[in-house]
């Protein structure tokens, strides 16, 4: 009778490779002892192994940007430690707790084992690996410096994902304020105000104008709540769909965003940071400036910056210096960024200067988001207090006047 197969668990491990470099990762194995044997066969001396705790809410099914950033860092770390590409992909796949990610990495491993380059294998997954990622890997393979390029890619992905997370955090606060305020108001108007209305019907006196307004608003919500909530849902769906599918609508929203107080500056600095970080990474990888600018355009996160970048590409292709082309867009690029680019071109260290520009504006985004969070936390309380307090006052005004009736 065949033995029942042992179930596998995911282990988090730390160890030292043959070069004495400390590395860590995740691996799926049947037991800790078998994992130790596997790591030793790969030339890794394990120093710490523990079973990975399962997430309370699950790991999620869809592959996101953070997964790709972690993948790039793991691959860069293992290859720089001397682990062969196919073996590194196998380790990453076995150690991942997201099925979709496991399937994709095993697919990459199969393609590489079949004789394809890593760049060709990555190109089969355009939703996960954009043109910029694939081009950089291709450049690394062609120049024989894949380990170095993977490290740059990993740093780039980590930086860009971090700034995306910061922007999402900043944008979520106003959405949270509006959503919470609307939900609280709806609950009060649909369930609480009608109870007060029953009480007011026995007063036999005229009600204050403010109270009457709230009662009429409550009746509107009770009668048409389905249309109000449905209309908001359809409106949000139409906005998201239009933003994704209509270039004109997308451009209008991106243009409007840049002019919104506080948030406009945040969006602008974020786009400049992405522009500089992406161009610095590609230029350092040996990608020609004209070719690099085409990939940079899609990474800025704003259509106005993307259009400006494509125009700069056309200018540089005809022999114009990047700094001269950037001067056409003083409304998008501040003087400091243009001066740093000019210094980089003059000194022959454009990638280094662009990296410094990216560092500066990423720090600016961090500071702005932290300040915005500090500002909006009490603002939420103020807005909710005004709304709830206003409704309470409207309901208690007739009770305050009850003595006059009696």
Please give a structural write-up.
α2 runs antiparallel to α7 (146-200), α6 (131-143) runs antiparallel to α7 (146-200) and α7 (146-200) packs parallel to α15 (350-400). The protein has helices at residues 32-41, 65-80, 85-95, 99-113, 118-122, 131-143, 146-200, 209-245, 247-259, 263-284, 289-297, 303-317, 322-326, 335-347, 350-400, 402-405; strands at 9-16, 22-29, 45-51. By secondary structure, the chain is mainly α. A 3-stranded antiparallel sheet has the order 2-1-3. Mean pLDDT is 82; it is low at 1-6 and 55-60. β1 and β2 (22-29) form a beta hairpin. The chain has 3 domains: 9-51; 65-159, Type II secretion system (T2SS), domain F (Receptor-associated Protein, Up-down Bundle), CATH 1.20.81.30; 179-405, Type II secretion system (T2SS), domain F (Receptor-associated Protein), CATH 1.20.81. Belongs to the GSP F family. It is found in: Cell inner membrane. Residues 71-194, 275-398 form the Type II secretion system protein GspF domain.
């Amino acid at each position: 009778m065949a033995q029942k197969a042992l179930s596998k668990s995911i282990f988090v491990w730390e160890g030292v490779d043959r070069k004495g470099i400390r590395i860590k990762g995740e691996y799926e194995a049947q037991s800790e002892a078998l994992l130790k044997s596997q790591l030793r066969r790969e030339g890794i001396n394990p120093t710490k192994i523990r079973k990975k705790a399962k997430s309370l809410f699950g790991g999620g099914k869809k592959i996101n940007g953070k997964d790709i950033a972690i993948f790039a860092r793991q691959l860069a770390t293992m290859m720089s430690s001397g682990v062969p590409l196919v073996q590194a992909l196998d380790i990453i796949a076995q150690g991942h707790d997201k099925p979709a990610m496991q399937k994709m990495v095993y697919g990459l491993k199969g393609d590489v084992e079949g004789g394809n380059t890593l760049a060709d294998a990555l190109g089969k997954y355009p939703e996960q690996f954009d043109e910029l990622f694939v081009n950089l890997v291709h450049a690394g393979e062609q120049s024989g410096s894949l380990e170095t390029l993977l490290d740059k890619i990993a740093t780039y992905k980590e930086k860009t994902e971090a700034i995306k997370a910061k922007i999402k955090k900043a944008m979520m606060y106003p959405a949270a304020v509006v959503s919470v305020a609307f939900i609280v108001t709806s609950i009060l108007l649909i369930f609480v105000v009608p109870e007060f209305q029953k009480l007011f019907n026995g007063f036999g006196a005229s009600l204050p104008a403010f109270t009457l307004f709230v009662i009429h608003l409550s009746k509107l919500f009770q009668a048409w709540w389905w249309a109000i909530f449905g209309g908001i849902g359809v409106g949000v769906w139409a906005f998201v769909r239009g933003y994704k599918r209509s270039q004109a609508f997308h451009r209008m929203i991106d243009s409007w965003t840049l002019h919104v107080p506080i948030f406009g500056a945040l969006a602008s600095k974020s786009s400049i940071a992405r522009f500089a970080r992406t161009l610095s990474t590609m230029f350092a990888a040996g990608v020609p400036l004209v070719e690099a600018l085409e990939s940079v355009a899609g990474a800025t996160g704003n259509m106005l910056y993307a259009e400006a970048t494509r125009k700069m590409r056309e200018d540089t292709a005809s022999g114009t210096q990047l700094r001269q082309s950037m001067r056409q867009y003083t409304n998008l690029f501040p003087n400091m960024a243009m001066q740093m680019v000019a210094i980089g071109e003059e000194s022959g260290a454009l990638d280094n200067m662009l990296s410094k520009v990216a560092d500066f504006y990423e720090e600016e985004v961090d500071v702005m988001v932290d300040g915005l969070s500090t500002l909006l936390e009490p603002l939420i309380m103020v807005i909710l207090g005004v709304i709830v307090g206003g409704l309470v006052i409207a309901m208690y005004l007739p009770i305050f006047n009850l003595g006059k009736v009696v």
